[in-house]
UniProtKB/TrEMBL annotation, chain A:
It is a peripheral membrane protein. Keywords: Cytoplasmic vesicle, Golgi apparatus, Membrane, Protein transport, Transport. This is AP complex subunit sigma. The lineage of its organism: Eukaryota, Viridiplantae, Streptophyta, Embryophyta, Tracheophyta. InterPro entries: AP_complex_ssu, AP_mu_sigma_su, APS3, Clathrin_sm-chain_CS, Longin-like_dom_sf. Belongs to the adaptor complexes small subunit family. Signal peptide: none annotated. Gene3D superfamilies: 3.30.450.60. It comes from Capsicum annuum. It holds the Pfam family Clat_adaptor_s. Residues 1-147 form the AP complex mu/sigma subunit domain. It is found in: Cytoplasmic vesicle membrane; Golgi apparatus. The keyword Manganese does not apply. One of its GO terms (biological process) is Golgi to vacuole transport.
From TrEMBL, chain B:
Residues 860-873, 923-935 have a biased composition (Polar residues). Adaptor protein complex 4 (AP-4) is a heterotetramer composed of two large adaptins, a medium adaptin and a small adaptin. This is AP-4 complex subunit epsilon. Subunit of novel type of clathrin- or non-clathrin-associated protein coat involved in targeting proteins from the trans-Golgi network (TGN) to the endosomal-lysosomal system. GO terms for cellular component: AP-4 adaptor complex; endomembrane system. One of its GO terms (biological process) is intracellular protein transport. Residues 734-748, 755-776 have a biased composition (Basic and acidic residues). One of its GO terms (molecular function) is cargo adaptor activity. It holds the Pfam family Adaptin_N.
């Protein structure tokens, strides 16, 4: 299964991170930093796969990344997935983003944080590949945003949260 | 950037992101984020926030948390948002909680109800959002709450919902298999779903289920094959095509499943051959995804029952991968090659140059993968090159995790295939020098044992040469700063045992060096322990040789320091040394005989030699021995306290008869001074003590038996080098694999190098500019490979009867000792001559002896191990403390002594000598060393080794091949 998806920019700032196995926030940061450290040390024109990630991840965790302009797209997964297929899944993800934002750039990723998650949720569900066709993903995403825009009236949120919860 | 307003972020949010983006340092970023958190904390509790604004706040929280800051104050608001009826709010809420919360978080309980409701919603998008959340948030306890709804959704009219429901069920299965076991059949049902997408999604859970239990899914082979066929024949709607490939992800999953189902199952595999062959033939290697499928086919082919035709096309595909410029494909090619050589080892030969290219590639991933491949194909003929390369690489990296791995692989390979002991020691030195702290301590023990036992044959000069060279190399190396502790221990031990053996170095020189080590590593008690034991040995050898011992001032001060050490172990050793130095030559010689570290010891477990003494004591009115189970523990301790003032029957009772399990004689590790130590006088004379000391000693030697269990780790085994492979920590899996490899490839006829050349020439035709260096490397790496069909199969049969009898008992001698055996006896006995020709051993038969070997090892390990002695490991020492502190401290200290490997020598003599003395024979004759290995078995052993040598491995080392690389 896929363990995590990360989008990190060339300076090591996370732009999107999603972990399909729960990791505490500090651990997430550590993982992102570790991945960035590994990636930034790699020259161009080498393979997109990394096997020995050290002890930070579980044994047999593989990493596939792709470097687009200023962004690293990183998928972490175990041995039940095929490396090249994961590389293409990154391609699917990016293609979808591209369709969605009309030639995607880092700023789109930054400013459309929730849409990124929506797209990713249509591609990967609970660590398994759900859909690999970017047209299909786009259709689902558009349907969601259409529905959302029609229902998003300016109604007020009911403030009934118990005060002891709202710290 | 027209899209940035699409989800209606406010200027505030945009400013935040922008300022974070422009932050020049982590500290600045943190400041901005902390400021943002403060703002959000205030804002989020304001009354009557518009929904839109609230959504934005939540997204800002998510963003803040992604940057590594705590946003837990807002979790409840995200939870609240999931309750909203508005789809957008609800989705935002679900997204936020799936990112914020783990399945055991307290707030989950507030969401479960909402999820239940949403799963029943008419709006399928709401259902999808809820299913998304289910995958992440539901834990084992809450599964029952949503399970019925999720199962209902498996029949939902929308395929997107069905698909997600399958995934959710799969997730439940991952989290808690027991709670959904009864629903597993649903996956099979959904496999026949009308929608290919849903069918595809069931493959994920089925893959998991099948990898857990292959046999209950064999019936599905037909279905999977027919699905794969339909997919490959483009029967699916065009929308499932990806880069002109029909549903590649489904194909990949199916191939993975087939690989599982066909593994080791000929019948199932036969059903797959056609379709897998078709896919490979049709595959499009120009696109990434086409190659992904091709690679998956190779994996499948190498996993299912072998089919020559498929293997051939798999080999072709590997060739294509390796020739490709893309590193990704090269990587996959190397990986696939590693899978294929398990089935037929010759495939690697065709790709030798490509493999070497990968080895020299700047890409670390590729390099490591290639090392993995080389590791798999190591055999006696190429071990030197491969291990050399590995060590070079090991020295060049800083990644401790990988360093450990590669170091242990070096050790494993060296132990298994070492062509000569000399090489083995050099290799180990290198590994220790550069990664000594990362390797297992056992490796150090193995190294000491190897130096002690030498070639395991009668050639004494070779042995002493080996030792001298070891001493030389250690004297050279020990000046280096920062040597790891384990290596220093080896150095101390070797210097102590053999430093003065060849007369080249004087005792004062060696002792000076040893005390230098101890001084330089004054914080390491283990090293100091080894050092003081080494000093003791050097001095005793001197005394025994009749020379006068002048202790160097630095040694003197070192020992004085240890006499007052906090560590009882070190103190004990220092006292030991002091008293041994004070003894006369004859006594010393029997305590620490020269070069006796490998002598076997026989222990009279019944302690029958004491019968006379016991009888005498009984006659004098002593109390008879009461077995431990017949008396209470409390009194035994108090009795023990009295015991060392005079012999009494009680002293026997402690551990004397405990743990009688090991059946092979063992040596109770008691040094002579223990007697002195039990009596609280520091320097009693040894001889006069005997009568009095017999009883305590008896109890002490009894403790030896309790220790047998403890000493299994570092002990030497009867037949020298064999033990390396048995004790190496390799997994049985890789072992088997390797032996198979070795078996097919072991036969390296002298024509080999030329054969390898031929291959190189072949590839040269295509690639004119190949570096001759590389070719040489290729020859040495792959040169050992040979074509089995060239050799007459008869000779093996000839060798079988010859060696069969010996085979079983001596199979252990095989692998690693081959090289050594050749060196030691280059001329084969006449009856073996006919085997000297290049012979062949068919794969299947030659595996046999190795299997036997394995079985043998298992059964032998238990019995051989305790038969000899070496040092116990530190952890054992601790357990020893634990054991003995219960029964009495005196015994505890006595046991401590046994930690020094050399002490074993003392022990054998001591445990017997006193009894002789006690019985008035008057001479301190050493009783030890009636060896258990009779001359006959030994001869047979050697013969067998030779047979193997001749039959299996006529020229295991081809010096020419390695000259360039090693020189």
């Amino acid at each position: 299964m896929i363990k995590a998806v990360m989008v990190i920019n060339g300076l090591g700032k996370p732009r999107l991170s999603k972990f399909y196995e729960f990791q505490p926030a500090e651990k997430q940061q550590e993982l992102i930093r570790h991945v960035y450290a590994v990636l930034s040390g790699r020259p161009d024109n080498v393979s997109n796969f990394i096997r020995s990630l050290g002890t930070v991840f579980g044994p047999d965790t593989r990493l596939v990344y792709k470097h687009y302009a200023t962004l690293y797209f990183v998928f972490l997964f175990d041995n039940s997935e095929n490396e090249l297929a994961m590389l293409d899944l990154i391609q699917v993800f990016v293609e979808t983003l591209d369709k969605c934002f009309k030639s995607v750039c880092e700023l789109d990723v930054v400013f459309n944080y929730s849409k990124m998650h929506t797209i990713l949720d249509e591609i990967i569900l609970g660590g398994q590949v759900l859909e690999t066709d970017s047209v299909e993903v786009m259709r689902a995403v558009e349907e969601i945003s259409k529905l959302e825009s029609t229902t998003s009236a300016g109604t007020m949120i009911n403030k009934s949260i118990p005060s002891w919860w709202a710290r | 950037m027209g899209s940035q307003g699409g989800f209606g972020q406010s200027k505030e949010f945009l400013d935040l992101i922008k300022s974070i983006g422009e932050a020049r340092s982590k500290a600045e970023e943190d400041r901005i984020v902390i400021n943002e958190i403060e703002i959000l904390k205030k804002r989020i509790i304001e009354p009557d926030i518009p929904k839109r604004k609230m959504k934005e706040y939540i997204m800002r929280l998510v963003y803040v948390e992604m940057l590594g800051h705590d946003a837990s104050f807002g979790y409840i608001h995200a939870v609240k948002m999931t309750h909203d009826d508005n789809l957008h709010s609800k989705r935002t809420g679900y997204l936020a909680v799936t990112l914020f919360l783990n399945e055991d978080h307290d707030l989950i309980i507030l969401i479960v109800n909402t999820i239940q409701k949403d799963l029943k919603s008419d709006n399928y998008l709401v259902v999808c959002a809820a299913l998304n959340a289910v995958c992440k948030l539901i834990n084992e306890e809450t599964i029952p709450a949503v399970l019925p709804q999720v199962v209902d959704l498996l029949g939902h009219s929308k395929e997107a919902v069905r698909k997600k429901a399958v995934m959710a069920l799969h997730r439940f299965h991952q989290k808690s298999p027991s709670s959904v076991n009864h629903l597993v059949s649903n996956f099979r049902k959904r496999l026949c779903d009308n929608d290919p997408g849903v069918m595809g999604s069931t493959l994920c859970p089925l893959y998991d289920l099948i990898s857990e239990d292959v046999n209950s899914y064999k019936d599905l082979v037909v279905s999977f094959v027919s699905i794969l066929k339909q997919v490959a024949e483009r029967r699916l709607p065009k929308s499932y095509d990806y880069h002109q490939m029909p549903a590649p992800f489904i194909q990949i999953k199916l191939l993975k499943i087939l690989a599982l189902l066909g593994s080791g199952d000929k019948k199932a595999s036969e059903q797959m051959y056609t379709i897998v062959g078709d896919i490979m033939r049709k595959s499009d290697s120009s696109s990434n995804i086409g190659n992904a499928i091709l690679y998956e086919c190779i994996c499948c082919v190498s996993s299912i029952h072998p089919n020559p035709k498929l293997l051939e096309s798999a080999a072709e595909a590997v060739a294509k991968f390796l020739k490709n410029d893309s590193h990704n494909l090269k990587y996959l090619g190397i990986d696939a090659l590693g899978r294929l050589i398990k089935i037929s080892a010759e495939i690697a030969e065709q790709h030798q140059l490509a493999v070497i290219d990968c080895l020299e590639d700047p890409d670390d991933t590729l390099k490591r993968k290639t090392f993995e491949l080389l590791y798999k194909m190591t055999k006696p003929s190429n071990v030197e090159v491969i291990v050399d390369r590995m060590i070079d690489y090991m020295m060049s990296i800083n990644d401790n995790h990988y360093k450990t791995e590669i170091a242990s692989r070096c050790v494993e390979l060296a132990e298994q295939f070492a062509p000569s002991n000399q090489w083995f020691i050099q290799t180990m030195n290198k590994v220790f020098e550069h990664a000594g702290d990362l390797v297992n301590l056992k490796v150090a023990h193995n190294l000491m044992r190897l130096i002690a036992e030498g070639f395991g044959e009668e050639d004494e000069t070779a042995d002493s040469q080996l030792r001298s060279s070891a001493v030389e190399s250690y004297l050279r190396i020990m000046g280096e700063p920062k040597l790891p502790s384990a290596f220093l221990q080896v150095i101390c031990w070797v210097l102590g045992e053999y430093g003065t053996a060849d007369g080249k170095y004087s005792a004062s020189y060696i002792t000076g060096k040893i005390s230098d080590i101890a001084e330089a590593h004054s914080t390491d008690d283990m090293v100091k322990g080894y050092a003081v034991s080494a000093l003791m040995k050097v001095y005793s050898f001197e005394i025994a040789a009749g020379r006068k011992v002048d202790m160097l001032p630095e040694c003197q001060s070192f020992i004085e320091e240890l006499l007052a050490s906090n560590s009882t172990d070190l103190q004990q050793r220092a006292y030991e040394l002091q008293s041994v130095v004070g003894l006369d030559a004859r006594a010393v010689e029997s305590i620490i005989p020269m070069d006796a570290s490998c002598e076997d010891i026989e222990v009279d477990r019944e302690l029958s030699f004491l019968n006379g003494y016991v009888q005498e004591s009984l006659n004098k009115g002593a109390q008879p021995y009461i077995p431990e189970n017949e008396r209470s523990g409390a009194s035994s301790i108090s009795n023990f306290r009295i015991e060392h003032h005079g012999p009494s029957g009680h002293s026997l009772r402690f551990e004397a008869y405990e743990l009688p399990k090991p059946s092979v004689p063992s040596r109770p590790p008691v040094p002579p001074v223990s007697a002195a130590e039990l009596v609280p006088v520091p320097e009693p004379t040894y001889h006069t003590q005997f009568h009095e000391a017999v009883a305590p000693k008896l109890s002490v030697s009894g403790t030896g038996s309790s220790e047998i269990k403890l000493r299994l780790d570092g002990v030497q085994k009867k037949w020298g080098k064999q033990t390396y492979s048995s004790s190496s920590p390799s997994t049985s899996d890789s072992d088997i694999h390797k032996t198979q490899n070795g078996a097919t490839k072991r036969d390296v006829p002298s024509s080999l190098s030329s054969k390898a050349r031929d291959v190189s020439y072949d590839s040269r035709k295509q690639q004119e500019d190949v570096d001759p260096e590389k070719q040489k490397l290729a020859a040495s790496l792959f040169g050992g490979a040979s074509k089995p069909e060239k050799r007459p199969p008869a000779s093996h049969k000839a060798s079988r009867p010859n060696s069969h009898a010996a085979d079983k008992s001596n199979a252990e001698k095989s692998g690693p000792s081959d090289g050594g055996a050749v060196k030691a006896s280059p001329q084969p006995p006449p009856d073996l001559l006919d085997l000297g020709e290049p012979t062949s051993i068919s794969n299947a038969t030659s595996v046999d002896p190795f299997k036997q070997l394995e079985g043998l090892l298992d059964s032998n390990e238990g019995t051989i191990a305790p038969g000899s002695s070496s040092s116990t490991k530190a952890p054992d020492l601790m357990s020893l403390y634990g054991d003995t502190s219960l029964s009495g401290q005196n015994i505890g200290t006595a046991n401590l002594l046994s930690t020094g490997s050399s002490d074993a020598n003392l022990i054998s003599d001591v445990s017997h000598a006193p009894d002789r003395n006690g019985h008035g024979t008057g001479s301190a004759v050493t009783l030890s060393t009636p060896l258990s290995k009779g001359p006959n078995t030994k001869d047979a052993l050697e013969k067998d080794a030779l047979v193997r040598q001749m039959g299996v491995n006529p020229t295991s080392q081809n010096p020419n091949l390695f000259k360039d690389l090693l020189g």
